[in-house]
Amino acid sequence: MLDEHLDVTLVNPSKNRIIADATVKIDRVDRKRLAHMLRADMLAESYVPPDEIPQRADLIRTRKSLVRRADC
Question: Whole domain around residue 19: which residue ranges?
Answer without folding.
Answer: 13-71
